[in-house]
Design goal:
The chain is mainly β and 98 residues long. The chain has strands at residues 7-11, 18-21, 26-30, 39-45, 50-55, 59-64, 73-81, 89-97. The chain has a single domain (7-97), classed as Immunoglobulin-like, CATH 2.60.40. The strands form two sheets. Strands 1-3-6-5 form a four-stranded mixed sheet, with no helix packed on it.
Length: 98
């Protein structure tokens, strides 16, 4: 018996983008590398039902579990540059399970 899981890849997602996934699926978020590679993306905040599998400078992978709330929950990703203090770009995504 083979169990198939959904694997969703978001490339350079738009701020506020809603992502709806079933529990047990995998979410991958990838960002394009720009310029000299001085920028890095980081997870600033994530719902508890997203378990990180891989965290890189320009991409992330999460395993999706059923949350306690059916409402979309925010996933906040922030791009910063190593040569400039403070945060740069922010991408807030909304993740709904179901």
């Amino acid at each position: 018996m083979s169990i198939r899981t959904q694997h969703r890849i978001l490339r350079d997602p738009k701020p506020g983008q809603l992502v709806r996934l079933p529990a047990g699926s995998r979410l991958e978020v990838r960002f394009r590398r720009r310029g000299l590679g001085l920028s890095r993306w980081q997870v600033e905040d994530r719902p508890a039902h997203l378990v990180p599998l891989v965290e890189g400078d320009h991409g992330f992978s999460f395993l999706v579990f059923q949350g306690q709330d059916d409402r979309p929950q925010p996933l906040r990703l922030v791009r910063s540059r190593i040569d400039r203090p403070g945060s740069g770009e922010v991408r807030d995504l909304l993740v709904a399970v179901g």
